[in-house]
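Subject: design request, 196 residues
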């Protein structure tokens, strides 16, 4: 599956308008631990390897450069064998063992409370992090990358219909965390045009 999403920061009244009439899918705690090496080999290519609540996942970019980016578009791999294959890890070792062997260490450990809604075919995630950054993501899942632009346009139209500013750039959680806590890593990703 391919996830197409756009991030927003909304005042309470807009949050209410966005979630009015939406199906509430639940609330959960997400514990994320993201990995990279000391040269930022993964993140400087916009590759995000994480352990989320004890399960490894990787997000691979489908985007154009950050200057032209309107939404975030990633292919997600959640199957551990596929992750090992992608990274050319030893299939007989655990992912954690392979990470340690290859020099990948956690650089971002954050807990997020997520409220999830569904409205008109869109997923709406309202995230509150333990480091004081709150963001809303509107996303749409598609089977392949044939309709990326049309899907992005749909998200923007949906947001505009709810009075949401779609032009302001909003940092993702990892981006904001690095900006606040690891300026060297953050600046490297700005230089590599992963972040603005």
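Subject: RE: design request

Done. Sequence follows.
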């Amino acid at each position: 599956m391919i996830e197409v999403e756009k991030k927003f920061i909304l005042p309470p009244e807009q949050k209410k308008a966005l979630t009015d009439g939406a199906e509430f899918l639940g609330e959960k705690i997400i514990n994320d631990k993201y990995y990279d090496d000391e040269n930022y080999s993964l993140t400087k290519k916009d590759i995000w390897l994480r352990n989320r609540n004890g399960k490894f996942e990787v997000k691979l970019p489908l985007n154009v450069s950050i200057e032209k980016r309107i939404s975030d578009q990633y292919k997600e791999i959640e199957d551990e064998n596929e992750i090992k294959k992608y990274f050319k890890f030893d299939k007989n070792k655990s992912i954690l063992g392979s990470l340690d062997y290859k020099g990948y260490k956690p650089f971002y450990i954050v807990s997020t409370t997520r409220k999830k809604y569904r409205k008109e075919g869109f997923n709406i995630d309202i995230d509150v992090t333990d480091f004081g950054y709150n963001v809303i993501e509107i996303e749409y899942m598609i089977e392949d990358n044939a309709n990326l632009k049309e899907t992005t346009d749909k998200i923007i139209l949906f947001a505009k219909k709810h009075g949401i500013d779609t032009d302001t750039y909003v940092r993702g959680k990892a981006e904001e965390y690095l900006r606040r806590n690891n300026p060297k890593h953050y600046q490297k990703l700005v230089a590599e045009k992963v972040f603005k």
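The radius of gyration is 17 Å.
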